[in-house]
Fold this protein.
Amino acid sequence: MNARLNIRLDRLLANLGYGSRREIQALARNGRIALDGQILRDVEKRFAVHDDFAARLTIDDMPLDPLPGLVAVLHKPVGVTCSHKEAGPLVYALLPERWRRREPAISSVGRLDKDTSGLLLLTDDGAFLHQAISPRRHVPKRYIATLDRPLRGDEAATFASGALMLNGEDKPLAPAALEPLGAQQAALTITEGRYHQVRRMFAAVGNHVVALHRVAVGGLALPDDLAPGAWRLLDDAQRAAVLQIQQA
């Protein structure tokens, strides 16, 4: 097994948000850090950090937080925001408090606006983030939209045409797939991430979105048992599923 990192332990723990190096050295002096069940007092020592390191090292008898390179799925509730530019609590407040001090920092993979709920990915893996949001990959994103007025019947053809222009823009949207789910509800799959895109698409055909919920990104669906506000880490297969390009 190749090492993911070769790093001083105090630096690793500081990067994971456990405190300053001085605070971490104090934890070690007080016997609060253990590796494979043995008290570890030398946190200036370098370690070859393998994937199992987080399970082998404990602080106050608790397993180490996830190593750098994590990807988590969050069921974003309505009322929280991904951006400091929007009013309201941030999605990061739903994560463990220590995670907000991690370096590299955890970022959302794209954004959902304050009034949109559903699947939101969070990561400190810059390469994964770039792949997931790159326009060149065309990662599909599936939403359930509840509408103010009944569907007219021509929306699917309009959205699939590749010719729909949003107000204030000069480039048409890429084709998108609409599936009616009821008179005033539809599933919409898009491969772009323009500002408030789904809401603006329905506005362009004379309708208004009253509720919007993202249910999938790439080949990863929002888990049925993940409650609003809850999160969980993705395994390697789930990470790969995010980047799957599903053919229509």
Q: What stands out?
A: The chain has seven helices and 15 strands. Residues 69-134+224-248 form a domain with the Alpha-Beta Plaits fold (CATH 3.30.70.580).
